[in-house]
Each structure stands twice: as C-alpha cells, then as structure tokens.
Amino acid sequence: QVQLVESGGGLLQAGDSLRLSCVVSGRTFSRYAMGWFRQPPGKEREFVASISWTGSRKSHAVSVKGRFTISRDNAKNTVYLQMNSLKPEDTAVYYCAVEGKTYGLGPESPYEYDFWGQGTQVTVSS
For 106-117, what is each residue's pLDDT tens digit? Predict the structure, then answer.
C-alpha cells in the first residue's frame, strides 16, 4: 500500500521560512517523479512544484519561483519543499503526490499523480 505522509506545516508570519517534508512508503521512491500542490481556502488545487525521478529536472509555479525549492533524498524516501519569503497568499493546504508512472519528469497536471498525502496546513499572516 502506497502512503505519503506530509509534515512541517504551521502558522507563520510574512517573510518567514518553512520546510515541508513528505515521506513515501510502499513504492520504489527513486523511480518516481514527485509533486507538491496546494489548495488555498475556497479555491481549486494548484501546482506548486515538481521534481523528476532523477532529481535533475525541477519545475516551479510562477507564483513561487525564486522563493520555493523542491528537492528529494532518495535514501530517505523523502521529498521536500523549502519555502522562503512566505506571503499571506501562500496560505493553503499543501499536498505531496507521486506520479502514476515510473521514470517521469514531474508533470504539472494533478491528474498525472495517483497517490496523495493527507495534506498539511500552512497559514501565513501579514
């Protein structure tokens, strides 16, 4: 059974930094691209960042580029999202997801991902 467990969310102030973690079990982590998505209050889920199975290709949404960085540690079956210079508009539930096929590049569409974590809340006050 594939499981993804996120951690690291919290209540922060604008300008703060935070690192989210997502541990994956039940799947050969090193063979799969990973993604981070978020769902702000009252809005649709949106792409934040993705990383290819090798880690060599990373993609970040325009809204977070230069502030957020995705990375992975295959030895720990973990994907990270380092978030710097947080803004109130970053407030959302953040989800990690694993791509539905092996050796992928990390697409931006949520429909390409087949397993998701439970989400972790990030709240940024001004």
Answer: 999 999 999 999
Q: Quick one: tokens of 44?
A: 């649709």
Main-chain dihedrals φ then ψ at residue 86, nearest 5 degrees: -65, 145
Question: Whose structure tokens read 């931006």?
Answer: 108
User: What percentage of the chain carries pLDDT values higher than 70?
Assistant: 100
* CA distances, 35 to each of 14, 16, 70, 95, 108 (Å): 24, 22, 9, 8, 8
Closest by CA position to 48, among listed 86, 85, 81, 9: 81
Q: How far apart are the first and last CA of the chain?
A: 40
Would you mind telling me the total number of residues written for the chain in this entry?
A: 126
